Every structure is written in structure tokens, then in C-alpha cells.
Amino acid sequence: MKHLHHHRLLLLSCIPLLLCAVVPVATGGRHEAQALLKWKATLAGGRESLSSWSLAVNSTSPCNWRFVGCNPAGDVINLNITRASLNGTLAGLDFSAFPHLESLDLEFNDLYGSIPEEIGNLTSLASLCIFDEHLTGPIPRNIGKLKQLVVIELLKSGLNGAIPAEIGNLTSLENLSLFDNSLTGSIPPTIGRLEKLKRLYLSFNNLTGSIPLEIGNMTELKFMDLEQNHLEGELPGTLTHLVHLITLYVSNNQLEGHITTQLGNQSNLVDLDISRNNFSGTLPQSICTGALNTFRVSSNGFANLHLHDLNFQNCTSLQLVGFAANNILGDLSEWLGTLPKQLNLLYLELDQNKITGKIPPTLGNMTNLTYLYLGHNLLTGTIPPELGKLDKIIALNLSYNHLLGPLPPTMRNLSSLRLLDLSSCSLTGPAYNLFITDHSIFSSNISFPDIEVLSLSSNYITGTIPMLLCNANYLRILDLSNNALYGDLPDCLWELPPLQFMDLSSNSFSGVVPFSRSSNITLQSLHLANNHFKGSFPAIIKKCDKLITLDLGNNNFTGEIPSWIAESMPQLRFLRLSSNMFDGTIPKQILQFRLLQLLDLSNNKLTGPIPVDFASFTGMIKQEHGAIVYYGVYSEQIQLVWKNENYVYSKTIAFVTGIDLSRNSLSQGIPEGLTTLHGLKYLNLSRNNLSGDIPEDIGNLALLESLDLSSNQLEGEIPPSFADLKSITTLNLSNNGLSGRIPTGSQLQTLVDPSIYSNNPGLCGFPLKECAGATSSQTEMSQDDDREALWLYCFGVAGFIFGFWQSWGIVFCNETWRYALYQYVDNMQEKVAKITAYRCSRARP
Prior knowledge:
The protein is of the alpha/beta class.
């Protein structure tokens, strides 16, 4: 019993020690739970996903909560809260409450604001993954305190500012991913301290400066992606130290210099993309001694390279080759003959060069090819039927070459095609030969069932559009412009679900534009210009609420422009209805287009006044314009008469702002509201019946480059503010009733052609003859000014003398003299008064 008593005493004495060991864990768990609950209270979203975050009656631990992971001791070590719809900031999270946290993952939520500097309190953190497009602010400098970090992924957000130099303190780091942000400044040289780093992703930012030499210290680096920045200078020679480098992407920068030394010994390289830079010189012959799979150097300055300089004898692993836009010379057939027979090319990009010769039939032997780009070269001959053996090909571009003849029937075998561009190749033959899988016109199968982009523009293709084309359920871009197609349009075209871009302009289509019952029309760009369509304004347009561009110019449309036009197309930016037979007045609702940049209603039969309220035309009021509209590989383009010449705008279309109402029968005055369109660059109101004055505030259009008000009935003087048109380069005010002196201005003085003011009988001044009587009138005015100055001088002197004698004569003169002096002064005053009155009477109009 005595021994048992001693054991009990010993056990009782250990209880406090056990409690001491347990209490910190319980307290820690409670502290972490309270920190998470406090943060949850600040979040507007995530109520459902964080519903398990609550304290139970018998537990204070968060270890059973969703997204929370703990170690056996009950410490929170993982917070992986992904796709939880969290809506709020990180400011409400107490990072100091998680001294054992090893992994923090907050991907795909709705977090906003900045990453707090307090994140530096997570001293046990090994993995940090935060990306949300609404996050902003800089990368916190205190991130350099997280010495245990192995992985940093702060990507696809709005993070800005420079990469902190403290990043070099994270010597355990193996993965640094900061891509797709808005980071600026240069890559800090301290990054060279990360000697364990294997993955470096800094692409899609705004980084500047050169690639630091210290990057060569990261000898474990395998993947480096710096593309889509503004980096300058040469590739550092220290790249040769990166003996484990597998992937190098530096495309879309401003890098320059030769690459032979830096890349010639990279025997482990698998993927290399240095395209869209300013590299020059020659290409390293030894780059293929290893396992190179991807070699892309498109859009650089490798001028005067010859195809035989592209020596791929040792490149047996090469699958992707991109040499576009480098002015490469040579015969394609000869070069293909030098390639190793075991080469398994999947992607060949040689477009936008100066490659000559015929398309070799041996290309058909590369049966694994999926992408073939030979467009914009000097190729001749016909399309070889052997290309029909490329049954795996997805994209084929032979556009802008000197190819001739009909399309080979074997092209119908390319059933995997998603992109086919044969534009500007002088091809001939009926359209159905290409679209139908066999020679029967009753075939029910389309040649390219998966086609997404189809361009056959600027050829000599004839016939009608086969109804079968409507079976192309994936078609997004259809360009059949500038051919010899005719007939009615199939109404099923509107029902192609993904169709965004359709250009059927410059053919011989006729009839009425068909209607469709479809309620899901996805078209954003519709070009039907230069055909023979007739009837009223197409009713189908009312359903095209996603349109950005509508071009119906040069057809035979009649009737009025409907009042619903702006309401039905709220996103429209380019509207061209010129050279039709539209009549009636311009509907005032047309001024409700908020995004409109181009309005062309010229050469119609429109009457009545120009609508006056332009307040909604914000697309022309602001001096900024939308981004270029791209549809996959296509960019938006539109034709208009600009500065008296025909222009086709494509890549610069985003900067076009203009109004053309010329060659109608519009009447009354030019609305004052036009002068509020400060972003306007082009204005043509010529050949109408407009009357009245030119608006006084015309000079507000400071960006205006072209102005044509000719052949109207305008009168009065040209406003003085005309001199404020600092950008004007094309002007025509001829054939009006304008009068008075032409204003002078620095830019106006460069317009020396007198015909721009001709047939305005009352106009004078440069560059016309000087105004009649201008010299004698100016001399007379000058003489009047001299007389006035002389009189004032005389009056001043006389006044002084008279005042002097009047004051002192009282003292020194007698009474008789004083009276005589006073009388003399009175007489002089009377004469001055009469002279002044006479001059004033002459000055009155």
C-alpha cells in the first residue's frame, strides 16, 4: 500500500506537467480558429463554402473545418481555400495566428485589395499560391522573411510595382511564378541568389531593362519563361551556365543581338521560342545536337537568311519549326529535300518570307503535319493534289501566293481542318467542288465538318453558296469576299451558332437579305458591301444585337433607315450604309450609338436636317478609341473614302473616327453639336443643300484631319477658330457662298491649293488673291492711328502749358490779362470738343 501511495503521488505530481503540455495546443487551436472566424466575418462571399467554420460546444479546434488541414499536434498547417467564392480582402486575416502554417492556397476566389505585409509572419510557410484577377498592389517586401518557401505562385492577378529585391533571400525557392500580372521595373539581380530554382515564370508583365547576368547563377534552372514583356538588350552570355535548361521562352520583347554564342551549347534544350524580337545574325548550327523539339524564331531580323542556312540534319526530334516573317530566301522544294527522313514534323511555319518555287508534292508525305503555314510568299504553280494526304492537318494557310488553277478535289479529304486560308491565290472553279465530299451535288456531307476559320477571299471562285455550308456547326469566321459568287444567300447562315465574322462583300449576290427565326445570332461583324442586294433595310439586323461592324455599302437597298437601329445594336462601332438608295430623314435615334466611331451614310437620297444632339456619341467625343477587333487570326477591316482616296482600314481601324453624310439632299444648317465631337478625325458633309454659317466653334475639332463642306449653300465668313484646326491636312470648302478673309493659322498655311476655296465669290486671302483694297484700307487705318496719336500728344502738351499758365498767371498777370487767358483756353477747349465730336461721328458705322 505504501508503494501504491507513492505511485499515486507520483502520478498526481505529473498531472500539472501533462496539463502544461496540452494547454498550449488547445490555446493555439483556439487562437487559430478565432482568427479564421474573424476573417470570415469580413467576407461578403463564401457563406456556403465556409459553413463548417463554427465553434462546436465540445471543440475549439478548426481541424475538422473544410479547407483546413492540421498536423497530429492540432496545429493548422494547410489553408487550401480554392473556388470558395470568397469576396473580400486579406487585411482581415491575422497571419501571426498561424506560426505552423506550411501551405497557403487561395486560388480562384473573388478576393480584392493588396497582399498585406503581415504575410511575412508566416515563417513556416513552404508553399504560397494566391491568384485572383481582382488583387492589386505590389508584392510585399516582407515576403523575403519567408525563408522556408519552396513554391511561390502569385499569378493571373493585378499585382503591380517592381519585383522586390528581397526575393533573393528565399534561397530554398524552387518555383517562382509571377506571370500574367502588371509588374514593372527590371528583374532584380538578387534573383541570382536562388541557386535551387528550377522554374522561373515572369511572362505577361510589363518588365523592362535587360536580363541580369546573375541569372546564370541559377544552375538548377530547367524552365524559364520571360515572354510578353518589354525586356531589352542581348541575351546574357551567362545563359551557357544553365546546363539543365529545358525550356526558354523570351518571345515578344525587344531583345537584340546574336544568339549563336548564348544558345549554341544548350544541348538539353527541348523548347526554344525567341520570336518577335530584334535578334539578327545567323542561327546556331549546334542547337540540334540534343533533343530540340520546338524551335521558334519568327518575326526577328534574320535578314537575308537562306533556307539552306536552316540546317536540321541533326534535328531528328524536331516537331515544331517557326521561321515566319524573317525575309528568308530560297526554294522550298530544295530545302525540304535536305531534311532528315526520320523527321516527324507536326508544325511548319514559313509564312511572310520570300520563299520561291512550287509547293512540293513531297509535303504530302509528312502525314503527321497538323499546322502548315506558307502564306505571304512567292510560291507559284498549282496546289498539288498530294496535300490531300495530310489527313491530320488542322490549319492550312497558303494565302497571298501566286498559285493558279482550280482547287484539287483531294482537298475534300482534309476532314480534320479547322483553319483553311487560301485567300489571294488566283484560284478558280466552282465553290461546291470544295465544300462537298464527292462529285454529287446531292451529297449530304460537308468536306470540313470541324472547320472554324474559312477564308477563300480574293480569288475567282464561282457559283452559289451551297446550303451544305450550314452544316459547319463550328464555323466562326467566314470570308468569301472578292470572288465571282452569285445568287441568293442561304437563310441558314444566320443559324450557325458560333459565327462571329462573315464577309461576303464584292461578289454578285442578289435578292433580298433573308430573314431567320433564330433568336441566337452571334455575329459581331457583317460585311455585305459591293453586291446587288435589294429591298428595305434587312430585318434580320434587328436580331444581331452583338454587332460591332455593319457594312451594307454599295448595294440597292431602298426605304428609310429604321429608328430601331441603335437600340438593336448597342455595341456597334462601325456603320457603313453608303451608296444605296435609302431615303427619308436621318432618324434622330441614330445618335444614340454610344460606341460608334464611324458613321457613313453617304451617296443616298436622304433629306431633311442633320440631327442636332450628339451628346451620346461618346465614341467620337472622347479622344481615345477601343482596341483593335480581332476574330482569331482575323482583324476587323472596313473600306471608306478618306482624304479623297479609297482606304481599307485594318490594324489601324481602332483609331478611325469619322462621319460621312456627303452626296445626299440634306438641308438647313450644320448642327453646333458636331463641334463637341472632339475625337473626330474625318468629317464630310459635301454635296448637300446645307445653308447658314459654319459653326463658330469648329476649331474645337483639334484632331480633325479631313474636312469637306464643299458644294453646299453655306454663307458668311469662315470663323476665326478655323485657325485652331492644328491637324487638318485635307480641306475642301469650294462651291459655297462664303465671304470675307480666310483665317490664317500655322496648319492652314500648309494648304496651298487655291481650289479648296474656289467658287466662293466673296472669299479672299491666302491662298487666294489678297482682299480687294486691303492695302489702301490698311494705309488709311494706319494714317488714322497716326493722327490720333498726334492729336493726343498735342492735347497733352497744350493741356500742360495751359494748366501751367492758368495756375501761375493768376499771380503774375493783371486782371485784363487773366480774362484774356481764360478766354483763350475756353476757345481752345471748344475747338478740341468740335474736332473730337467730328472724329467720333466718322467712326460710327
